[in-house]
Design a protein that fits this description.
By secondary structure, the chain is α/β, with parallel strands linked by helices. It is built from 10 helices and 7 strands.
Length: 282
């Protein structure tokens, strides 16, 4: 099956953002996505560690940890060749122009720690200024600027933009005022990405799906990796064709992200998926 020429998808990966803090802060841009579609909790499965590697791998491959083989933030022993990320599948098997923008965390985009998780996007923007909160903030800003240019002008069929400052701030300073401020800055960057899409010359003839997703939560003092509800609760916000605004989408799973990307683009890849497209439970 070939992709629709008008269907396009932007996935925004927002690392380490607690759902309760997100809901408490003024985040007009994520609220816009949720208002036109939904914001729903994701419960990380008990067998999946609450760290970035396995959670992001589950979301972008649409498979569980027993398939993709990533159990931590070092990807040694992964099986991404058998269970690839959605950008690689869309580029390799369907000829789409895909785009990956990563600020701050190298193994998503480079060979660091046995990466990359995203093997072969058509275009890559990578910026890292270190793993501290200030460094991640600079990385997020750099890739947001690049993504604004690419999303506004290029023939992008699918994109993944990673923003990491919320997680880094939680690690460095806990989930206090600085963490709340990071969430607000991240939301402003989300707004810039949405505005870039809105500025596309053929936007009125394109059908865009927007998905924002976090990988895990944090404990109040900062950090994650345990089994508490705060760490094990993630979330997805999404809007676009076929997503009914205001409907109840229940508790979704990370594996559903890649599955919905493929469905939104009208493709059926010849790969194993553990997820399914988002569907209302009303």
């Amino acid at each position: 099956m070939s992709t629709s020429r008008t269907s396009r998808v932007l996935v925004i990966g927002i690392d380490g953002t607690r759902l309760d803090f997100l809901e408490a802060e003024p985040t007009p841009n994520l609220d816009r996505i949720a208002g036109e579609g939904f914001l729903a909790p994701v419960r990380i499965e008990d067998g999946t560690p609450t760290v970035s590697g396995p959670c992001w791998a589950t979301a972008v491959t649409g498979t569980k940890i027993d398939r993709h083989g990533i159990g931590g933030n070092d990807f040694a022993g992964h099986r991404l060749a058998e269970h690839p990320d959605f950008l690689t599948v869309l580029t390799r098997d369907f000829g789409l122009h895909t785009y990956l923008a990563v600020g701050a965390w190298p193994p998503l985009a480079t060979t660091a720690d046995h990466g990359p998780m995203f093997a072969a996007p058509s275009r890559l923007s990578f910026a890292t200024f270190g793993q501290s909160a200030p460094g991640c903030d600079r990385g997020d800003e750099a890739v947001t600027r690049d993504a604004e240019r690419v999303l506004a002008a290029e023939d992008v069929g699918a994109a993944f933009v990673y923003l990491g400052v919320n997680d880094a701030t939680g690690h460095d300073l806990g989930c206090g005022d600085a963490y709340r401020a990071a969430i607000r800055r991240t939301d402003a960057r989300v707004g810039r990405l949405l505005a870039a899409v809105a500025a596309r010359p053929d936007r009125t003839g394109e059908n865009w799906t927007f998905i924002a997703v976090t990988d895990h939560g944090h404990v109040l003092e900062g950090g994650h990796g345990g089994g508490s509800e705060a760490e094990r609760t993630a979330w997805i916000a999404a809007c676009g064709p076929g997503i009914e605004g205001g409907a109840d989408y229940g508790t979704l799973r990370h594996v559903d992200v890649a599955a919905h990307v493929y469905a939104a683009l009208g493709v059926e890849p010849d790969i194993v998926l553990d997820g399914k497209p988002f569907a209302s439970v009303v």
